Automatic annotation (TrEMBL):
Subunit composition and interactions: Part of the 30S ribosomal subunit. Contacts protein S5. The interaction surface between S4 and S5 is involved in control of translational fidelity.
Pfam families reported in the protein's UniProt record: Ribosomal_S4, S4
Source organism, top-level taxon: Bacteria
UniProt keyword list: Ribonucleoprotein, Ribosomal protein, RNA-binding, rRNA-binding
PANTHER family in the cross-refs: 30S 40S RIBOSOMAL PROTEIN, SMALL RIBOSOMAL SUBUNIT PROTEIN US4M
Descriptive protein name: Small ribosomal subunit protein uS4
Functional note: One of the primary rRNA binding proteins, it binds directly to 16S rRNA where it nucleates assembly of the body of the 30S subunit.
Start and end residues of each Small ribosomal subunit protein uS4 N-terminal domain: 3-82
Length: 192
């Protein structure tokens, strides 16, 4: 399973946004540069890929799926990325970073509706319950992460007592906490 493994802080500085949600990512100066329209579109695409930690081939599949719908392509793209299991595990607070959440999924610590799912790109449906495995509830790191993270997203419900969360509705574009202009990404791919 491929995943981006490059220098995270350097990428964050180049994009000008802390896409990895790490407190030290933008400590040094942000690189400011004048960009053409193509450069702006490319930068938005790189930001969105950075937020969700996916590579180009998989990202292109998400874009083509969004372009083949009758609804707003940019909104559908962000919704589908937001509903990835590794991302929802991160948003619920099981992992302190997206990379940690992804590793939790791959190592089998997460159940979806009572079944062990170890595929980070698994698309969670509305009403699905995401739970920490019973034996994983003894891990101090998981307990601390989950209990210390407050949830401020309206499309997720969190049950601290049972170490679980639920996707209660489709994520609206405004509720998703990312700084991306998705129309530029759609323009970038509709030319190809």
């Amino acid at each position: 399973m491929a995943r981006p493994m490059g220098p995270r802080f350097k990428i964050a500085r180049r994009l000008g946004v802390n896409v990895f949600n790490h407190p030290k990512a933008l400590k040094r100066g942000v690189k400011n540069q004048k960009l053409s329209e193509y450069g702006k579109q490319l930068q938005e695409k790189q930001k969105l890929k950075g937020y969700y930690g996916i590579l180009e081939k998989q990202f292109r599949r998400y874009v083509h799926e969004a372009l083949n719908t009758r609804e707003n392509s940019g909104e559908i793209l962000v919704q589908n990325l937001e509903r990835r299991l590794d991302n929802l595990v991160y948003r619920l607070g099981f992992g302190s970073t997206l990379r940690q959440a992804r590793q939790m999924v791959v190592h089998g610590h997460i159940l979806v509706n009572g079944k062990k799912i170890d595929i980070p790109s698994y698309r969670v449906n509305i009403g699905d319950a995401i739970t920490l495995m019973e034996k994983s509830r003894k891990n101090e790191l998981f307990i601390e992460n989950f209990q210390s993270t407050s949830l401020s997203i309206d499309y997720l419900e969190k049950d601290i007592e049972n170490f679980s969360g639920k996707l209660v509705k489709k994520p609206s574009r405004e509720a998703v906490p990312i700084d991306v202009i998705d129309s530029r990404i759609i323009e970038f791919y509709s030319k190809n």
